[in-house]
Fold these 2 entries.
Entry 1:
Amino acid sequence: MDLIASIDRKLDQLASQSLTRRRRVAETRCAPRQVVDGRPLLAFCSNDYLGLAAHPRVIEALRAGAELYGAGSGASHLVSGHSAAHAQFEERVAQFVSPHLVEARALYLCTGYMANLAVLTALGSEPDAMIFSEALNHASLIDGARLAKAGVTVYPHGDLDTLACQLTASSASTRIVVTDSVFSMDGDLAPLPGLLELCERHGAWLVVDDAHGFGVLGAHGRGALEHFALRSPHLVYIGTLGKAAGVGGAFVAAHASVIELMIQRARPYIYTTAAPPALAHALLASLDIIGGEEGAALRDRLSALVAQLDHELRLERWQRPASQTPIQPIIIGSNDEALRAAAALHEQGLWVPAIRPPTVAPGTARLRVTLSAAHTHEDVAQLAAALNKLERT
Ligand SMILES: *Cc1c(COP(=O)(O)O)cnc(C)c1O
């Protein structure tokens, strides 16, 4: 009984700090208009930036993939779970991002979380390697760095000068700089051109987690590397596929030797059952849409919605850090006030999540608005009006 009581004390402590999280049950597909816990809501919280999670072609490809390959893969990739669908997707996505890499090859993994563990443990497998990790990196990169045998140095957010000093001072055998491209709670971009220049100068790898950029940034949706027109054999690129691609999983694209090392050594790739092949089959359709004319039109539409929100919001007390991406945070400060704001929006049928520590720094609790090409201009106008009014009450 004492064991249970000690857990309950921890839970009570979270509750007393307004840090208890609860899950809402979505009863309909991922789309702006959903039924959640029995109630219709207009949602501004998914990372389905292009609306592909409910796209008829992607859904049909998922169905066709299940017919072709069955429901599950049955084993890990190195045993017998590697299907033609996985292989095709890897080839196609490697080609898609190849303008930005040298001798590009790609590897499909079950989740972005696992892809980040896989990359950092494979590249940082030696104790005398060093990982230079951006302060606002996603939890999965932090966990990957913890799991790697390499040492870890954190550099301040966006601070190229401090990183340059740290690289100069380091005598590590292998140096790995790792960063989110689009910061998931702020929506700002990492200074990737400066980071790549530093990495080239110091003979370091640059690992870029483009979870929120792939499909969204760049004229063809190739992501942050296309946005900044970067190319290098020392880039290791991670694109996640549950966000703009609308399905699930992730890929790592890099020089063929990096990918071969991961197949041989990366435990989060090797020791897990391969994702259902139907997902990879559905992703072939997503990739087609992202890279084609439809994808370009969806990105134009998304940009117009972001500009509209920016234009219509009139906030005085709450802070809005500059963000050109569909991630539009509204920083409120206290956990309580952020929760009250989210609850008040919910009363009006709007679903905007309140994000609290430890996901963000203490004192920066916020509403995290995300926009999707599936939203309408009326949806955005409704949200802006509700936020403007709420801030004044
Ligand atoms: C969502 C996210 C991940 C994890 O990807 P999943 O496929 O959801 O596991 C990794 N990095 C960043 C920056 C993310 O936002």
Entry 2:
Amino acid sequence: MSKKIPNASGHFGVFGGRFVPETLIAVLDQLTQEYFLAQKDKKFKEALNYYLRQYAGRQTPLYFAKNLSRYLGIKKIYLKREDLLHTGAHKINNTLGQVLIATRMGKKRLIAETGAGQHGVATATVAALFGLKCAIYMGAEDIQRQALNVWRMKLLGAEIISVKSGTRTLKDAMTEALRDWVTNVSTTHYVIGTAAGPHPYPKMVRDFQSVIGSEARKQILLQEKRLPDYLVACVGGGSNALGLFHPFFKDQSVKFIGVEAAGLGLVSGKHAASLVGGAPGVLHGSKSMILEDKFGQIKNAHSIAAGLDYPGVGPEHAYYQKIKRAIYVAISDKEAQEGFSLLSEIEGIIPALESAHAIAYLKKARRQLGKNSLVIVCLSGRGDKDLHEPR
Ligand SMILES: *Cc1c(COP(=O)(O)O)cnc(C)c1O
């Protein structure tokens, strides 16, 4: 296990790498170098820890969900409470890290693309904090659907750029954001919101999110005097899951379970399960598992949880699936809604619909997980944003 993952060219086995226009190679190299230097810089680490603690609210509790454990007949379920962070989800761990890298490079402007608006809000938040300009690319369709987050981003001082090409959703916004970056590389940093994209993003985002698993590992050893049997997390692009999993990578007894969105069902074709129901391909600058039609066009993903609604997944997950380090399952919209209600009623915690996929999986698999298991679930975000969903 001493081999570095990813390797120097950003490959996780056959996955990852860089599939971008030639004009971006230099800036990706610069970013890789800067990130490498930052990791060795004590001042950088101190600054990041300061903002994670004082601004975002770390460390987050590892909460023993006693009622849920008893109800499901699983010995002990712990929730890693990323829902308690500023802006309501784990995404701030990554945007704080990236804004500090951007300022090191002297960049004055942040851009990002967003589907549901959660990553847009997390990016606009750190741009406000550090006094940077901020432009958020968003599909025209999504702007209609996510009015509250659009309003939040505007309050935070970001410019919202409506993307009217293609299907007017996330994948078109991604294309436009990359185009902006090509044009404005000298002033602009592109903040990718999940563990996907060209090297070094999958590694960098995973590292910034690994604070989740590093804390959880210490907390469980303190609270239970042993490692957990299972780690469970929802997978959109895969950053909260990798953040939880990665610090346990070498603990062979700890099993990883990633929960994708089955949407209206895998056979319906309306889902977002790139690992369970997709195929190898290239999207958003790297090779991974993706959803494409028989003509090689990227399909529109579907999930009731906007944050899981992405037609790809980070390359490290494709690698974990291939080497069988993690298993991946899919939970439908309907099951996720049941998980949403269950956690709200039984623990008084309203989870994000994304995180509710992980809760629903526990319910579905409670017998396989066994009554002697110690389980940690990443509660990636809170559900206030989802209260308008019909049920
Ligand atoms: C964005 C989001 C996700 C999905 O993103 P990952 O990169 O897969 O973690 C999950 N949960 C919440 C609350 C989100 O906002």
